Each structure stands twice: as structure tokens, then as C-alpha cells.
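Let's practice the habit of predicting before peeking. Look at the sequence and jot down your guess about where helices and strands might fall. Then scroll down.
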Amino acid sequence: MDPVVIPILVAALVVVFLVAATVRIVPQARRYNIERFGRYRRTLQPGLNFVLPVADRVNTKLDVREQVYSSDPKPVITEDNLVVNIDTVLYYQITDPRAAAYEVADYLQAIDQLTVTTLRNVIGSMDLEGTLTSREEINARLRAVLDDATGKWGIRVNRVEIKAIDPPNTIKEAMEKQMRAERDKRAAILHAEGERQAKILTAEGTKQKDILEAQGTQQAMILRADGESKAVELVFQAVHRNNADAKVLAYKYLETLPHLAQSDNNTFWVIPGELTEAIRTVTTAFGDQSSAAGPPVAEQQDPAADIADSDKDNVGVPEIEPNSTLALDAVAAADEAAKQAAAAVSDAKAEAEAAGETRLPGR
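Done guessing? Here is the structure:
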């Protein structure tokens, strides 16, 4: 080998070594702390950097992105002397690489221990119920204390969250029973409220139904009464307009008598006292008609006829001139009406007696 080549190779190796020792490429979101002869010199920023070979060296490489640190569950005693395990999650970011490297030996351990002591101070002034329901307050107080303490370390605590609060098993069982009792209570209250509302609505519906039925019955009775009133008024007007005589009224009276004994519930039947008066009215009406057709009866009668007239109320048939044809027709009509009335009375009595004898064994 040529003796000149060897020095050239050595010089080339030295140049390569010096270049490699001088150039430092820092990635994005990274910071390098440079020491010169063991003393902090500067912090390299992302990109191409040059340092003094042999004299400068990289001490620490730090990531300035936001970091997440989850601590292990730590036992904490509450104000009511219950031990609970609390697990926290910490979000932090390095803002000063020099302080993070030289102000504290291990910033993660320092943050963890500071979190535990702060939790014990905060939780120690709360009972279990307050601890379970005041997470936002605990998080805010933790963040305030940690951010104030880690500021001089070049670290900013962005957020602190309580991940889990685990009370003892006995407390969990008691809380489950209490929660179950509260839910049963609410369910019973809701069920009672539902039944109450249902009964109220049912009562209101029944009330409205009764009111409507009563109003309907009232309107029906009023309409029925109005109809009967108008019917009676029309009949009354028709009777007076047609000037019905005593014969028609007496005939209607006798025609109604048989219907009095048609009911099945009648055990006895009372004969009205106006029956003889009705018969007398019929005979008088026909007698008046015959008198209007012929000469007056009083002029053609003898003293014996006057005696017959005095006994007319007991017999029920007046003495009429035998020579008059109209008088004979009136007498025949009166006799026929009397016979029909007597037959109706006899039939009604027979039916009443038969009904009474039929019901006697059942009493």
C-alpha cells in the first residue's frame, strides 16, 4: 500500500467522526439538553443543530407533547373513617425541558406522591357520600395544587381525573341495599300515584255518566210529560170542540170497567160506587132523546106513572111511554148497557176469586 494513502484515509475518518459528532438532528416535539464539560449549555430545538465535538454531549432527551400518567389505586381515609381506594389519571406537559431535567430528579414519581398527599388532604375533610358525589370539586382542588407545585419543575398539569373510587365490600353491599330500597320506595310511590289517578279518573267518569244519565232521564220525563200534556190537551179540546154528550162519556166509563180486573196482581176488585150513576146517565140520555122526539111524558102519564118516577132511582130504568118507538129503543139500549155492565162486574169478580184461590196454598 502506498504510504501516502494511509494518512489520507486517517484524515477522512477523522473528518467523518468530527462531522458526526458536530451535527445533531432533533425530531419534532423533542427537546435535547446539551452539556459542555458537564454543565448545562443549551436546549436543542427540532431540526438540524451543530454542537462542539468532544466538548458537548446530549444529557437528556425530553418529549414535550401532552402525556398521560395513570397511578395505581391509593388507600385514602374519609372523614367518617372509611378506607377507600382512589385511582387517578393525570394529564401533564413539559413546558421547560431544562427545569424538568435539573429541578427534580424524577418528575413522575414527584407528581404521583404529590397527588396522593393532596388526595388524602382533600378526602380527609369529606365523608363517603361527599366523596362519591363531589368528583368535580376534588378534581379542581387536585389540579390547583399540582399545577402550583409542578410549575417550578417546568411541567404544566392540564387535567386531573378520578378514575375510580372503590369503597369496602361491606359498604358496597350496604349502598346496594339502600339503592334497592330507594328504588322500591319510588316504585311503590309511583304505583300508588297511578292507582290514585286511576281511581280519581274512574270516579269522575262514573260521576259524569250518572249526571248524563240523570239529565237524559230528566229530559225524557220532561218530553214524555209534555207529550202526555199535549195529548190530554188535544183530547180535551177535541171533546169540547165536538160537544160530546153524556152518552159518549157514560159509554167510555162502562167500557173501562172490565180493564180494572185484567192485572195478574189483583187479589180483589172493588166495584166503583158510580156504576149505578153511569147506568142512570145512559138511560137518562136515551130518555131525553125519546122525549125530544115525542110529546112530553108528563102530559101522557097517569098518577101511577108518577109513582114509578119516584122509584126510578132504585130500579135504574125510567118509565117511558110504551107507545113511543124512540122510547122503546132507549129502553132497550139502557137494558143492554146494564146487562153488559153486570156481566163485566161478574167476570171481574170471578177472575178475582179465581186468582185468590190460586194463591192461597202458596202463602
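How did you do? The chain is about 60% helix and 15% strand.
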